[in-house]
Amino acid sequence: MLKYADFDVPGGTLTVVTDPAATGDRGKRSYGAVIAATYRGLDDAIERIEGYDAPVRAPLDPVAAAIGRYCDGELLALDEISVRQQGGPYQCEVWLHMRMIRPGTVDSYGELARRSGRPRASRAVGTACSSNLIALFVPCHRVVASNGLGGYGDGLQVKRALLDHEGAAY
């Protein structure tokens, strides 16, 4: 059964959903893997993860601890959280490289396309960003347009709040 919790983080309230039966990109964890994280609430999270029963509220202690440390300024704390989301091969490659963007830095869509092995695929990187179900943990807020901030599914005010919290110049 899926579990969820809400957390106050820079930019607002983040709803996080975990699948205790899942193994994510950091291996099997006590909470399984984070499969959705959104600033738009539980209904949005459920809509994003079709095919599952509605999650039940739970404390998600290891995830809560990492989020708390992140909010307290330990910006690498979220790196330990295991995540899992479905996507095509290139989307998964982009998400992997997105998790490598260090807090306090940003990459352009073009830079991320190059690092992901397809230098002409800036638009595909944008699609991977907009398809990302795990905001904050797969940090699409650290991906910006070459001529400015670019977009963000949870709103530019959230993107700015996260980048400001991380001390990123943008």
UniProtKB/TrEMBL annotation:
Keyword entries, A-Z: DNA damage, DNA repair, Methyltransferase, Transferase
PROSITE patterns noted in UniProt: MGMT
GO annotation, biological process: DNA repair; methylation
Coiled coil: none
Family annotation (Gene3D superfamilies): Winged helix-like DNA-binding domain superfamily/Winged helix DNA-binding domain
Family annotation (Pfam families): DNA_binding_1
InterPro entries registered for this protein in UniProt: MethylDNA_cys_MeTrfase_AS, MethylDNA_cys_MeTrfase_DNA-bd, MethylDNA_cys_MeTrfase_DNAb, WH-like_DNA-bd_sf
Catalytic activity from the UniProt record: a 6-O-methyl-2'-deoxyguanosine in DNA + L-cysteinyl-[protein] = S-methyl-L-cysteinyl-[protein] + a 2'-deoxyguanosine in DNA; a 4-O-methyl-thymidine in DNA + L-cysteinyl-[protein] = a thymidine in DNA + S-methyl-L-cysteinyl-[protein]
PANTHER family per UniProt: METHYLATED-DNA--PROTEIN-CYSTEINE METHYLTRANSFERASE (PTHR10815:SF13)
EC number: 2.1.1.63
UniProt domain Methylated-DNA-[protein]-cysteine S-methyltransferase DNA binding: residue ranges: 90-168
Enzyme class: transferase
Family: Belongs to the MGMT family.
A GO term, aspect molecular function: methylated-DNA-[protein]-cysteine S-methyltransferase activity
UniProt protein name: methylated-DNA--[protein]-cysteine S-methyltransferase
